[in-house]
Design goal:
This protein is an alpha/beta fold and about 450 residues long. The protein folds into 2 domains: about 220 residues, Spore Coat Polysaccharide Biosynthesis Protein SpsA, Chain A (Alpha-Beta Complex); about 220 residues, no CATH class. It has 16 helices and 12 strands. The strands form 2 sheets. Strands 1, 2, 3, 4, 5, 6, 7, 10, 11 and 12 form a 10-stranded mixed β-sheet that branches. A two-stranded antiparallel ribbon has the order 8-9. α1 links the parallel β1 and β2.
Length: about 450
Amino acid sequence: MKASIIIPIWNGREYLAECLDALLAQDYPDFEAIAVDNASTDGSADFIEERYPRVQVIRNETNLGFAGGCNVGLRAAAGDILVLLNQDTAVGTGWLYVLIKTLRSDPKIGIVGAKALYPNGVLQHAGGYVNLRGEGKHFGHGEDDLGQFDELRDVDYVTGASLGIKRETYEIIGELDDGFSPAYYEDVDWCFRARKRGFRVVYTPEARLIHKEASVASDAATHKGMYFFHRNRLRFVFKHWRRDRLLEEFVPAEQAWLMNLKEGGERLVAAIHHACLHNLLDLSNLMSWRRRLLGTSSDDAAALVEALLTLRTTIPLGVIGNSDVPKDEARSSSMEMLQDLHQSWSVEEHEFHSDVPIVGPLIAAFRRRWNRVSTQWYVQPVIRQQNEFNAKVVAMLARLSRDQERSVEVLSQYVEEMGREITELAEEIRRLNVLLDTGGED
């Protein structure tokens, strides 16, 4: 049984020698290694070709992200077993043999993951689970490895840093969703899709590796890192949670989490608001996935819009850090302003009509259908809402915060985010206008 190991590469040349040396030392008799270079600028592809002729190198002209890069490698792979491996890892002896043995041990096992450790030997990942808010949690994270996770078991997901999948499973569930580009949640989503089709996702402790987790560590605290993480977390939730769970459980839990954020959380709030906007603009794609995964109808679109707009208008007061205002006064004032803000989130669909005789109803129907496909029906209202909401946010912050320096910090984060969001809305309208002018060909 042939195995194919796909390693997406992007500017990580300093990790490649250790990764590839450990991989090529595996004792499994039949495997190929495919490095997919996502337009690296540090000579990674040249380094592999010069030092590791056994590794096939595929060069992408642009950075397709983790999912996109892996998909290129998966399409080129010839193996019966397909394995994803991060470039900043060093696999242990027998790692590949154990993954393949585990997949072959039960026809219902579709995906398998390994035990991942930090370089200091502390546990990083022993399988994972997902909570109501879509947060992916690693079993054992940060614990000493004392054998407490030394049994094979079923889990919600395993990390894409080291993930094996049967070709049969891959052909049934399809490729990684490149809508999660550049990174975060593509592995969680893949595992959930496999489980929805009846496959087991398991963790095996016998396959071990060291994972430096370099890219996550450097990016997580930035606005960009927060934005991509929460954008993809919301994408995952809105793909997989049914409507009643979204509205009755997820939204209240997410709002409660946001409202409990403390001083200094404005960057996170701004990132989440932007993440909501992105998923609003990607609604047609999300609805397509929901039809495939959940069998839902187009009626779910209104619920998704309601949920995303509700979260976009949730402003946690704790990030302001206004300790000088009496609690009762702050609470009363805050409730009044939040009620006012709440009135801004409802966006109604525009109903198209035509007075043209006979064919008028057909024209109106076509326009309604076209605008549902293109998402035009809510883009313009969202821009109007954005302007109204921005003004209310500024007024609320100015009224609540008596600490001028702190107020400037908070306002700067929101103003920067407003600029990013309006730019994204303008780009979406430009794209839709092009589609309308060309008759629907992007």
